[in-house]
Amino acid sequence: MTTTSTSKLNALYTRLSPGAPLTSQDLAALGISADLAVHYVRAGWLMRLARGVYGRPNDALALYPSLLQLQRGFEGMHVGGKSALDWYGVRQYVSQHPVLHLYGWKAARLPEWFTQRFPAEYHRKRLFDEKPDTLLHVGPFEKRNGAPQVSAPERALLELLSEVGVRQALQEAREIVESAYNLRADVLRELLQHCTNVKTVRLCLQLGREASLPWAEKLDPGTLPKGSNRPWVSRSADGLLVLKP
Questions:
Q1: 0.70 exceeded by pTM
Q2: CB-count exposure of residue 108 (10 Å: 0-12, 13-18, 19+)
Q3: How far apart are CA 95 and CA 206, in angstroms?
Q4: I want to staple 151 with a disulfide (CB 3.0 to 4.6 A). Which of 21, 36, 80, 168 is the partner?
Q5: Residues 108 and 177 in one domain
Q6: Contacting residues for 61 by C-beta, under 8 A, at least 6 apart
Q7: Same domain, 70 and 23
Q8: How far apart are CA 168 and CA 180, in angstroms?
């Protein structure tokens, strides 16, 4: 191997964190061409995860850097719903086989190199009046450097409620709401005011009132988009769901 190739490999290993995947674009930024990447793979210095995606040989991928890599290519992608609530400790029980719930702006499919290592589901979700590059109350988990984008607990709860009757059982959602005691009423109010889904708004207010949660008492239903004065009715596996205005 030439001195130039050796120096590029040294630079690669200096920049490549353990557990982090790299794309062809990342390699190109380090001066490593596609042909040289193929040489590194054949020599055992790089591991090919998928077309255009690489990692350290014999190195298990880590969740955070893998999510960061995905979020670079998926517009508006973030950890949300039940998964985000679980990360914040809002849960009913610890699942033995958790599935990571990811949301994004456009329809897409998660790559196999990710789902084979991290069981996950991706859903296109446009629940709020917002822009994909300025999502409401989504940011690095616990504001840590190098952490993936995650919904705040208040947004995550609304994402969870939006799935009721589709992929989320009502009873479990009710129990999770009951444990979401410390939500911030001002943040929840802002999100509800920008929510475009009547069912989600009404369900949040109804379940919050049923559980006598402090944040529910601080929300004025008259200032929120609850739709018409008619009941919202839906039939699902849980039975008939009726949400009054």
A1: yes
A2: middle
A3: 27
A4: 80
A5: yes
A6: 19, 20, 21, 49, 55, 113, 117
A7: no
A8: 17
